[in-house]
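Dear Dr. L.,

I hope this message finds you well. Following up on our conversation about the binding site, I have prepared a predicted three-dimensional model of the protein together with oxa(dethia)-CoA. For your records, I am including the exact sequence and ligand specification that went into the calculation, followed by the C-alpha cells. Please feel free to forward this to your student if that is useful.
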Amino acid sequence: MAAADAASHMAESAAPARFAHIIGWGMAVPERAMSNDELSAFVDTNDEWIYARSGIRQRFIANESESTATLAYKAAQQALEVADILPTDLDLIVVATSTPENIFPSTASLVQDWLNAHDAGAFDLSAACSGFVYALNTAADSIRAGSIQAALVIGAETMSRILDWQDRSTCILFGDGAGAVVLQASESPGGVMSSVLRSDGAGGDLLAIPSVGSIDAEESRAGANGYKLYKMYMAGGEVFRFATRVVSESIEQACGLAGITVADIDLVVPHQANLRILQAAARKLGIDVKKFMSNVEEYGNTSAASIPIALCEAIEQRRIQDQDHIALVGFGGGLTWASMVIRWGIPKPSEQHSSMLNRQRRHVLYRIAKWRSRSRRLRRRVNKRVKGFA
Ligand code: UT7
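The resulting structure of the complex is given below.
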C-alpha cells in the first residue's frame, strides 16, 4: 500500500462512526376538514361504506391559498423549531411527493428558498406512498457516509388536486397534508439502522397518475384503460393484496438487516392507506395491531405525507420512548415499497445552542428570505439590462 493510501486508510479507520438521528419533526394539514357525509353529497357513497372498508372518517382538503409547498414549508418550520437548528445549518432538503408544485423547479427548491436555507441542495423524490421512507434512507445514507451533516426530509401532498372527484373508488380515500423531519449526524449509536427499498414496475398500471411525457398520454386523452391525464387511477383490490403481502415481508427483512426480530419492534408507523391493510399485516407478523400507529380515520390517505404525519402524532402521544425500535413501512405506486428500522434516541444538543437566540435567528432568516429572493431576481434583471446595453 502506498504511503498516502495507508495514511488515508488510517485516517478513515480512526474516524468516529456516524449515525443519522431524527432530531426534529413537524406536520401541517389544510384548514378545511371534509367528512364522509360531506363527500356523499356529491359522490354516490356513504359514511358507513367508507368507514367499514377503509377506516376513514374525514380528510383535509387544501383551499386555493394552500399547496404542496405551503404545507411542506409549515411542517418544515415546525421540524426546525423542534430540532432547534437554523435553516442555514441544512445541507440537504428532500421532498417526497406525487403532487409537486411543478415538474420543475422542485417543491424542495421552493421550500429551500422560503426557509432561507441557502447552503442546502434540494430535490423532489418520486416513489408515491413509499416516497418518505425512500427520502429518509437517501438522507440517512448521505449523513452516514459523511458527505452531509443535517437534512430536512419532507413528505407533502395535495392529493385533492389530482383526484377524479367523480371516481368514488379513489376520491373517498385521499387527503392533503405534510410531515417533516430533521436528520442530523451524531456519534451516538442508533438512529436509522436499516432500510429495504423495493420496486415492481410491472405493477405500474395498478396505481398511476399519467403526466407529461407519459407513453400512455394519447390513450389517456382518449380515456382508454380508465386513465385520465393528470388524474389518479387505482385498481384498489389488487393494490390491497399487494400491500398486505409486502408490509409484513419488508418489515421482517428490515428487522433482519438491523439485527433484531419483529418481536423487538415497539411501534410500527405504516403508510396510512386502509385500516384493514394494517390489521392484515399485524396478523401476518404475529404482533398486536395496537403496535401499529393509525390515524387514517382523521386524515385519510395522504400518500408520501402519511408516515411523517403519523410519526409526529405518535411522538406527541408519547408512544415512542428513548431506545425504542420503530419500523416505518410505505407501499404504493410504482409499485414501490420500503421499510426502515430506527432506534429512537435524540442526542443532546450541543452546549452552544441557545433556544431563544436560535428561535429569533430563524424568524429573522424567514423574514429576510422573501427579500433575499426578490433582490436576487432584481439583480438578475439589472444584469441582463446592463449586458443588453453593453
Ligand atoms: O396509498 C397507495 C396504496 N393504496 C392502497 O393501499 C389502497 C388499497 N385498496 C383499498 O384500500 C381497497 O381496495 C378500497 C378501499 C379501495 C376498496 O375496498 P374493497 O373492499 O376492495 O371494495 P371493492 O373495490 O371491491 O368494492 C366493493 C363494492 C363494489 O360494489 P359491487 O361490485 O360489489 O356491487 C363497489 O362498486 O363497493 C362498491 N364501492 C363503493 N360503494 C360505496 C366502491 N367504492 C364505493 C364507495 N361507496 N366509495
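In brief: The domain at 16-356 is CATH 3.40.47.10 (Peroxisomal Thiolase; Chain A, domain 1).

With kind regards,
A. P.
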